[in-house]
Amino acid sequence: MRKLKRSTREAIEGYLFILPWLIGLVVFTVGPIVATLFISCTEWQLFGAPKWVGLANYVRMFNDPLFYQSLKVTLYYTLLSLPLGLAVGLALALLLFQNVKGQSIFRTIFYVPSVVPAVASATIWIWIYNPEFGIFNYILSKFGITGPEWLYSTEWIIPAIAIMGIWGAGSTMVIYLAGLQNIPRMYWEAATVDGASKWQQFWKITLPLLSPTTFFLFVTGLIGSLQTFTAGYIMGGGGGPLNASLFYCLYMYQQGWKWFNMGYASALSWVLSVIIFVLTLFVVKASRSRVQYDLM
Amino acid sequence: MRALRKVPQYAILILLSIVFLMPFLWMLSTSLKGGTDDIFSYPPEFIPKSFHWENYSKVLSMYPWGQFLKNTCLITFISMGATLLSSSMVAFAFARLRFPGREKLFWLVLATMMVPYYTTLIPQYILFTKLGWVNTLKPLIVPNFFGSAFYIFMLRQFFMGIPPELDDSARIDGASTWRVFWTIYLPLAKPAIITVCILQFMSAWSDFIGPLIYLHSEKNYTLTLALNTFRGIHYTDWHYLMAGTMMVSLPSLVLFFFAQNYIIGGISISGMK
Fold first, then answer.
1. CA torsion sign, B36 to B42 to B45 to B46?
2. Domain assignment of residue A77, given as a range
3. A278 shares a domain with A141
4. d(CA B222, CA B205)
5. Are β-strands A51-52 and A42-43 bridged in parallel, bridged antiparallel, or unpaired?
6. Spans of chain B, pLDDT less than 50
7. How many whole angstroms from its chain centre is CA B130?
8. Phi/psi at A38 (nearest 5 deg)?
């Protein structure tokens, strides 16, 4: 038997080691991406053969009021929850970064809600938001505010879900803390020597140097909140009241798994992917001049 | 004097801590209340009139939670082992073995991290339907044998930090590539491996959409899916619902308290991509 060259052998071994991922890539990622494009051009109830309908599903989408409603709900929620989550996460990180005693205890307290399973936290918050017997409106009443009907109100259900999201701001905080730890202390020390106030330091040093972290959190947060599902499914009892919490992915789920319109659901999933891709690209482009990696 | 300057900061931190803990306390308090009179009282009472610990055993007897726990554990632990083995093999190859196209393929690993979950969901569902795997635990377990992009990325970073001289000396002694991976790299990557295990535990344990789509008959339910159905049945029995919610969340909470440094370490890495 001829002995293989060392580099050839290493290459073969390399491919063997990545083989699981390569198979997974074809079967679970690339294959499905191509397949949805095909399925989105068919009418298919999962049983029998798919019927080719061309672009009919996409045309249908543009005449579907629920498509627009779900898009509106999702974008509204993203606009509310994304900046709110970033701001609260950053505020918590800054509070903890200033040499406080018991830092790890506070960090634990702020982070622990993030490990609660989404179904469990949704269940807890349904009870918290109970208009009559929940604590949220009780606490508001202590400040003389009559709380709204929250999850029963078309106007308040999305803000309610966004407020619940703040409870999970701990993971944003942790990433911001890691970002803060990467900033060389000398920047702040030099600024203090030069007589810059804390406020100026925040705007001129901390925030610009955190911009790569903010950028990362913004992009992942955007992708995540455009795919919100569980909150609408559970807290709105399936998108209610009056479709006020019909998130895009929830509508796609209903089309696919309630009515088994696999073709239409696939078309919806393609449009979502395109929206996510375009928005991400836009953010990457727009931030190129704003993300700063160093002060120099 | 300097300590005094920090007072407002501590006041804010303590106030915020109370706010963040409030939902847990409210859950615990409700779960111990006696019944509808106790729950639906106004103003709400934080400390129950009497402590009804039996709510927990009652909830346990209302629904086959043992079966749900078994299903959840099966999915969680097999998927943990599977993703760990596959992801670390792939990560090792990207970190240490030279093969044509390595950089391009690794770029592809990173790119797949950006593919939205819902993009691939429908064809995957159709695939598992055709395989006859719907309403079994397989769709939730088997994909984990093919590695996960984020874990591959994380483990590769870790493997690259291991001095390559270590494998050179092992290779001179005649060790195979698999042996180098198995006896040198894996044991040295223990912190990264623990992080992967915990993150995978958290995501498998909490998963909802996966079980919702794939598991139809009650005997296959996971805990999260069962909790949601349980809420549909006992929708006004908040003492039972909160006791159930508490029990479903508890394993994640306990794991977090024992392993929080690994979790926070892992989360922080995700921000440094």
1. positive
2. 64-287
3. yes
4. 8
5. antiparallel
6. 273
7. 28
8. -65, -50
* A184 plus A260 within the same structural domain: yes
**Contact in structure between A45 and A55 (CB atoms under 8 Å):** no
Number of domains in chain A: 2
Residues A165 and A275 in one domain: yes
The CATH code of the domain that includes A118 is 1.10.3720.10
Quote ipTM for the complex.
Answer: 0.91
Same domain flag for A49 and A76? no
B171 at A interface, C-beta within 8 A? no
Q: CATH assignment of B63-233, given 3.10.450.50, 1.10.3720.10, 3.30.230.10, 3.40.50.300?
A: 1.10.3720.10
pLDDT at A24: 96
Calculate how close chain A gets to B197, using CA atoms only, in Å.
14
- Looking at chain B, which residues constitute the CATH 1.10.3720.10 domain(s)? 63-233
Summarize pLDDT for A164-211 with one digit per residue, the tens.
999 999 999 999 998 998 888 899 999 999 999 889 999 999 999 999
- Please state, in angstroms and rounded to a whole number, the distance separating the CA atoms of residues B133 and B141: 11
Query: Exposed, middle or buried by CB within 10 Å (0-12, 13-18, 19+), for B158?
Result: buried
Which residue in B259, B268, B273, B266 sits closest to A178, CA to CA? B268
Residues of B in contact with A256 (CB under 8 A): 121-122, 125
Query: 């509070």: which residue's tokens?
Result: A95
Q: Inter-chain contact B119–A36, Cβ cutoff 8 Å?
A: yes
Is the pTM for the entire model greater than 0.90?
yes
Q: Do A123 and B231 touch (CB under 8 A)?
A: yes
- CA atoms within 13 Å, Cβ hemisphere of A101: 5
pLDDT of residue A93: 94
pLDDT of amino acid A295:
63
